[in-house]
Amino acid sequence: MQKVNRTLWQRIKPWFITLVVVLIYLWAFSGIDMSSIKETAGEVTMAILNGLFHPDWDFVYIGDGEDLINALVETLAIAFLGTFISAFLTIPFAFLAAHTKRGFSAHATIGKFLLTVIRVFPEIVLALMFIKAVGPGAYAGVLAVSVHSIGMLGKLFGESIEDIDRGPNEAIVAAGGSAVDSWTLATIPAVLPAFMNYTLYRFEIAVRSASILGIVGAGGIGAPLIFALQTRNWSRVGIILLGIIVMVTVIDYLSGQIRKRLV
Amino acid sequence: MNATLPERDFAQKWHLKALFAIILVAIIIAGSVQKVGIETEFSWDQFFQIWKEMAHPDWSYFPVIVQPILETVQMALVGTLFGTLLAIPFSLMASTNIMKNKFVLSVVRFFLNIVRAVPDMLLAAVFVAIVGIGPMAGVGALTVFSFGMISKLFYEAVETIDEGPVEALTAAGANSVQTIIFAVIPQVTNQFLSYFLYTLEINVRASTVLGYLGAGGVGLYLDQTLSMFLYDRTAIVILGILAVVVVVDGISNHLREALA
Fold first, then answer.
1. Which of the residues A164, B9, B83, B242 has the least number of beta carbons within 10 Å of its own beta carbon?
2. Distance from CA of B170 to the nearest CA of A (A)
């Protein structure tokens, strides 16, 4: 039987990779102080679970605008407006970042870098900046969501512009159409379903981020949650968590159904 | 000429569906504007003041945030590992081709849907309340967050495997544990590793802000500099976050391409 000859590197490669992974994890675990857990951890966990199973139903609707329904509707309004505005703001960025011609493209490189920066810029910091400009409240949340969403939507929109069939554009130019004709009659109809699909997808994510923006005072359900956690009002925490879970699940389901029909 | 045109009924001719959708969106927008209350003046002075200060980063602050940024990466690594280890059994229980018991399957999937519905920052807030301020809270939040995400990615991968090896092993008399180890795992290892790295990227991004709530990492410095209005230092923190995210994404993308 002939033995397969393997180079030294091929033989030690799996061991080398294992060693690197083990070293990385030894380093990672060394940075986390496991002993720092509070002694009350078990107690608090039980209290939160107890709160989840015995939620404060009275908080659902009070009628003075300080209840769960009101905060959830505000969260949805922030996510919806933010995503809607963002979809329009994104379009120029998407065309800037789309790499539609062969070879190096300066505008696509700049556009893609710009979108990465926007994507990584923490949404909470954006929210705080807008709070400076318009004061605390849901309006600041809307602005933060609409600027932050450009990062991801621009990437997805740009990729769908890159993916379209160029045939119709060339046909319109060949038949004597201007660049504007080629844009409005060929590009826009081709990318519109993808744009709508991604906007809905981004709306699902925006609902999640809008529910945390309240932590810094940018409106929505986050503020009552943090307040309830700080005052150790576990049944209040329970009902708010339940409310968020139901809201996110329903929105994901509805948006998923609409997106299925779009494709 | 008219005869060659396709017949369209009333609803199609007047685009009733599209019209209905547009009116619905318009109503929701009007309602949202009402709710959010966009009548406040936008103060460009205040807004640009922050940018002006951030445009001159305080580089002397950089050494202070190196350690917290590394802690952020450590939290992401440990959280992703714990989340993945938890996700493996659950993803097998949520795959239609492994779990034949419909009841268990739907219970597990329902549970996973609930876990996935909780945003990462809320998990951090809850874990800070449970284990106290520090990186352990971040690890806990990231564990639960990546558990929810990875479980779904994993069970979708398991459901697309080739059933041939599974049937062959079952026919040869293997029990279900042996089938999973020798027929399922080898087929999905590369996809699992790729999804692990993808989740790690998302966790690094998430862990940079978790500290804002006291859950460890560089986010704490975001909170401190912002609340003291030291925007030249905030700029350094943001640049640090940008750098670590770009580096981790780059390494992870490179490895995932090698795995594919």
1. B9
2. 30
CB distance B125–A215 less than 8 Å? yes
All domains in chain A, ordered by first residue: 60-262 (1.10.3720.10)
Assign 3-class secondary structure to B9-68. Answer: CHHHHCCHHHHHHHHHHHHHHHHHHHHHCCCCCCCHHHHHHHHHHHCCCCHHHHHHHHHH
**ipTM (interface predicted TM):** 0.81
Q: How much is the pLDDT for B97?
A: 84
Q: Over the stretch B166-205, which tens digit does the pLDDT of each residue have?
A: 889 989 988 888 888 898 888 888 889 999 999 999 999 8
> Out of A124, A134, A226, whose CB is closest to B43?
A134
Within a domain: B80:
yes
pLDDT, one tens digit per residue, over A112-140 is 889 988 988 888 888 888 888 888 888 99
Domain that holds residue B224: 57-259
- Chain A residue numbers touching B50 (CB-CB < 8 A): 129, 132
Å between B83 CA and nearest CA of chain A? 14
Question: Does B208 contact A122 at a Cβ distance shorter than 8 Å?
Answer: yes
Reported as a single tens digit per residue, the pLDDT across A65-89 is 678 888 899 999 999 999 999 999 9
DSSP state of A36: G
